[in-house]
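Data card: per-record layout.
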Amino acid sequence: MKNKLWGGRFSKKTNPLVEEFTKSIQFDKKLAGYDCVSSLVHIDILKKARLLNAIEHKKLKKGLQEILGSIADSSFKIDSSFEDIHSYMQHLLEKKAGPAALKLHTCRSRNDQIVFDTKFYCMSNSLAVQESLLGVREGFRNLQKKNMDLYMPGYTHLQHAIPIRLVSYFGAYIEMLSRDCKRLDGAFCNMNLTMGSGALAGTQVDSSKYNASLGGIKIEAASNSIDTVSDRDFVVEILSALAIIGMHLSRLAEDLILWSTKEFDFIDIDEAFCTGSSLMPQKKNPDVLELIRGNTGKLYGNLMSVLVMMKGLPLAYNRDMQLDKEPLFSSFEIIQRELNVLAGLLPAIRFKKENIKKQLEDECLYATDMVDYLVQKGVVFKDAHTIIGKLISYKLKSGKKILEMADERLKAFHASLNRKILRKIIDPETSIKSKRSIKRKRKI
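The structure for this 444-residue chain is written out next.
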């Protein structure tokens, strides 16, 4: 391993097994750009503190900007023989800026550096995920606009319950995604960017010198340096928010998978988002949705792995905390890929309106509406519930439709019941319009 940022106190070479076991460059290489930006901020602070002269600062800034440019244009290459991304960035800067690069870690510890880099990564990727969430949310709104007058059976326990509007169904997911955005925004607000914590006790640089700004985000000296280097609450909060997003997307995937089956046959998913079978020529499988559903286990596992890793750590920094990176990177990547796929899949869904309409002919869907009618006629709710329950039971046992029963038969359950009344009640539009407790939005 080359160019360690430590080692003066050691008289023996690190055992190769230890080097291989402890290295993190294979995953923290994703922080290269964020590390480069944090170093640009750091050298400005060193210049203000007169720990770098103008010439040294200029050389370091030029070198760091060149490295950042290579990351941006994808010409940046990683040398996996280095311990971590910080060591490698130091090596690259020494090649570009010479001896001035040896001052880069003045008043700086990797303990503090990695927290800054990781927070900056989380902030950037949280904004990207929020943007994607808003894109998927807009996809739901477009589906609402295209299907304003489409009614469907509502389900509880995966059984027919009561008619609903498809607009309301997608509205539920719009609410979920809105909360997801708020959760990410809350985690973002908790991630204050700080510098100057050193290893755990601060540095010799006056706290006022750490006042800076990065893309409109305020940077300042930490109020408690021990907490700064030992805290991973922000990682847990982000992983929790991403796991909840994954759970919401999994529920959506499950509904769409069910709706696409022959048993439901409510929707047709575009072939471009399906796969086939190597044996059965007829198959059209919703594999994308199944993987969204399956990935949720990974998201939960990533959250739990960091929670368990952190639970017994003494203050301040411990090397265990290196293990937060892979779960964090993994969860962001999973969610971003899923949102990208859904942004393309949702607009291509076709609703089979005739099949859905046929399901709405199930008279049991309107049992609650019949109870409400009897309540309006002065029947005590409990009695009304029992009366309609008996009517439904008779219907199911006799195999007769309620609307085909004679009025005399209906009146045997209650004097207010007859086919004319029930024909008005057993109607999806009437059922939905009768529900007035929910605020109706005039525009989608």
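Known properties of this structure: The chain has a mean pLDDT of 95. The first strand starts at residue 151 and ends at 156.

See the next section for split statistics.
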